Amino acid sequence: MLGLMQDHPLLIWQLLEHGARHHGHVEIVSRRVEGDVHRYTYRDALRRAYRVANAIDALGIEPGERIATLAWNGYRHFELYYGVSGSERVLHTLNPRLTPEQLAWIVADADDRVLCFDLSFLPLVQAVHTRCPSVRHWIALCEGDALPKETGIPNLLSYEAWIDAQPAHYAWPEFDERSASALCYTSGTTGNPKGVLYSHRSALLHALAGSLPDSTAMSAQECVLPVVPMFHVNGWGVPYSAPMTGAKLVFPGPALDGKSVYDLIESEGVTLAAGVPTVWLALLAHVNGNGLRFSSLRRSMVGGSACAPAMVDAFRAFGVDVLHGWGMTEMSPLGTLSHIGPQQKSLSVEQQTQLICKQGKVPFGVDMKIVDDAGTELPWDGIAAGDLHVRGPWVVSRYFGKEGIDARIDGWFPTGDVATIDPDGNMQITDRSKDVIKSGGEWISSIDIENIALAHPAVAIAACIAVPHPKWDERPLLIVVPKPGATVDRRALLEFYAGKVAKWQVPDDVVVVDAIPLGATGKIQKNLLRDRFRDHALPNL
Amino acid sequence: MLGLMQDHPLLIWQLLEHGARHHGHVEIVSRRVEGDVHRYTYRDALRRAYRVANAIDALGIEPGERIATLAWNGYRHFELYYGVSGSERVLHTLNPRLTPEQLAWIVADADDRVLCFDLSFLPLVQAVHTRCPSVRHWIALCEGDALPKETGIPNLLSYEAWIDAQPAHYAWPEFDERSASALCYTSGTTGNPKGVLYSHRSALLHALAGSLPDSTAMSAQECVLPVVPMFHVNGWGVPYSAPMTGAKLVFPGPALDGKSVYDLIESEGVTLAAGVPTVWLALLAHVNGNGLRFSSLRRSMVGGSACAPAMVDAFRAFGVDVLHGWGMTEMSPLGTLSHIGPQQKSLSVEQQTQLICKQGKVPFGVDMKIVDDAGTELPWDGIAAGDLHVRGPWVVSRYFGKEGIDARIDGWFPTGDVATIDPDGNMQITDRSKDVIKSGGEWISSIDIENIALAHPAVAIAACIAVPHPKWDERPLLIVVPKPGATVDRRALLEFYAGKVAKWQVPDDVVVVDAIPLGATGKIQKNLLRDRFRDHALPNL
């Protein structure tokens, strides 16, 4: 028997309609690619999103077809989020940090029909457009008179001219809430990038659960600055959760240096900022280097990579709480958030910092488990480490173009991370699954071994990898780059592990090299190291 | 094109599974009908909810069939919320304050199969059970040895004996999230009560949106006391939102007097309490009368009827913020919550109190509008008053048993209230639609007229009703009961309105009576007054 409640599908356009109707005067402030600051309200944004939807209709783009963006965080990108998804097309956010080859491959895989780009990416577009045969329309996100001549891009339109001719009203369609809304590709460190195809339902449930008090606590009290790019997993969902809750929204454009971010925080009264650790290091360096302080910022959300205790302490010195999150492109992205519960209020500051640096607890909607090689669930004792599997309505089931292949194992998505979970449900990632060293049935965390090496005064970079071993299956090998002018003594470095880990976890050998290969996102490419040292002769210790 | 995210229906059992798995050690504390205090954890509650589901299976109750409760707020009622709805049956919460006749009518209308009751309601059950032929099983919420002999109720079982024989594990079914989960009847001040049939989807979306920071801000930081009964619109959703967020849950049982509620707040460290104004008046009287203070309470949620400024001030004196909500059985119940936004932080305390006493803003998911008699939407200027219509995924579409009749007008549910909405989206109820006086095309709020009369030192009770008028259609008539020993002078009372309302809003006449008819819920029965004074001769003023 069905209930007798109203049947409204959850659709992305409802978020902006709500923002415009119930928080219509709240501002959206954008530092533009042009350098100046643009400001308007949710009500204004809705009217321009209507124009965008009408302009897309006029191009004859079919429901479900992809419209790509190559753009910084700003009001025009925000309008595309709603005009594209709201009118039942799919917003495909491209990462401008990729190479032209990667971009062309992704645009072809996604079969994009339209590509909208900030003028700062014109050279990139010029480099790829001949390799993007699926793209029929190129739109530069600028005024008509700012459009450069002779770009070589056929039929290039300015965004403002494109939408200006359209009426400022639009009747949003109602359709299945499981319809595709947005597409984002993984970074693809192994193999080709894979497309994650979000739905209206997943985006709205993610926005609701992600705004709960123990998640980001998004509300009309906040002025939120998503420094995290809108091409990076939907800007962590902030473009959805802000109009949903009536938060003031501040977009930084391309200016992500410490001074620019700081000035925007201060001038707009930002209370909550969201970004990756590297951006915060630059911000903190600027603030510390110039004897500044934060007058409005209360919370800094850190994600994308693990948050170091030093960053928690540095923000705390300014009265700013760190909100440490973990997620994935495949998770929309929210997986867990670090969490100081009522029971932990009595912990020392240092213990609280340790807790904040864990990946944390899931909100309602996500479930997680850790499993061993046989798929058996491991206990939540904070000690047992296993492959981390997740599930929930905003977790991927299949990849775009690979609909025939279930991305799950028994209904759970394997994250590729190795983690522990403590009795309170706090998850901590200890390694990547492919990097963990499996020795004699036990797992050794490569990250733990590397962190100890990095604490040694002579070590600049450290990588710990597994090398095959006839008796133990795998044994850890440590590869280090010395600090400039320093010398690493193999035996002394191995002795440095005494008392820090169990004896059987100490690496079997140390190799000193001049350089370690890093990928495009700054991560050590351990697959290359594993290839190179596959036949390394381990000494008999 | 559908998105490629995991397809999990939103089902009520997921809330308790989440609470047990991720907040498993968090306590549920209940003051029992037996008088003592019972405590256990979400993990324990889940195991007993499994037993309940197995016990229902064993009775052969079909999916969609109704299982009724006549119970106070406590852990057994909480287990029924999950065991019944989670196993795809419908939980029908009965209001024990109804008369036996009303109860029998509702049980028959709902076609209830099982009725579970607290022992304090045994006399009521004894009075109605012969008139409830649909009920096949009667369960007393007690231990086996507490079951009275010779009750006259056939096959009466104790709850503990009923579930004790069952296994403490259960495989929850997966089904359509739009399936019915719970049934609650309106008070039915006009005509018979009407059943509102909630769905799993409506309950979960309501729990998510209702827990947002600008809604109730439910979180693992809170210790929540729902004084509002679980038979009154699902206890405002607290039994769902608490396990969803990991809040500690405290149930008051039948002891709703000021001392009992205060003692429980203090002994359990309650931070958020939810109830109707009469309960809070008793609590505040106890606290003020005994020179006490609140050591943990931070927020008091007030709903059910409008919150007076004096209550906001009284709680503020103890450092407790009032959260003023408005809703309806037909809205699950959350409609609006009073809201102090960033722009209002600079208002004076008095102005903030006025704002808190408005009904407030909608969370995402609810939309509202005010319309005139022709159905035309009226402006949000804080002045224009119109019929309040609402819509959203947790708003009713049809009533139980009346599936053929749409309860909506053009897709919007007419609340029966008259309201204004200010430019910030703050809604304020000015009257009930049926009570408003429509004079010469203008609307006069009966509540405004009554509030002025109540400010007169001689007036104890005031009711303003419309009487037919040949020229103006309707004109206001004021009916008052004097305070003991006081005399109401008709002319002086009418002069008391000078400068307080427009001249055309002043009542045409005053009738002094000894008593005014009140209904079961303490509300003035204006329909009886309108019948009685239909032919009242208005003087030519």
Strand order of the largest sheet of chain A: 2-1-11-10-12-13-14-15
Q: From the structure provided, what is the oligomeric state, counting identical versus distinct chains?
A: homodimer
Termini Cα gap of chain A: 69 Å
SS field, number of helical segments of chain A: 15
Low-confidence stretches of chain A: none
Shape of chain A: globular
Class from secondary-structure proportions of chain A: alpha/beta
- Helix amount of chain A: 25-40%
Strand content of chain A: 15-25%
Provide the residue-averaged pLDDT of chain A: 94
- Which two chains touch over the largest interface? A-B, 74 and 74 residues
How many distinct beta strands of chain A? 24
Q: Mind describing the biggest β-sheet of chain A?
A: 8 strands, mixed
Report the radius of gyration of chain A as a whole number of Å. 24 Å
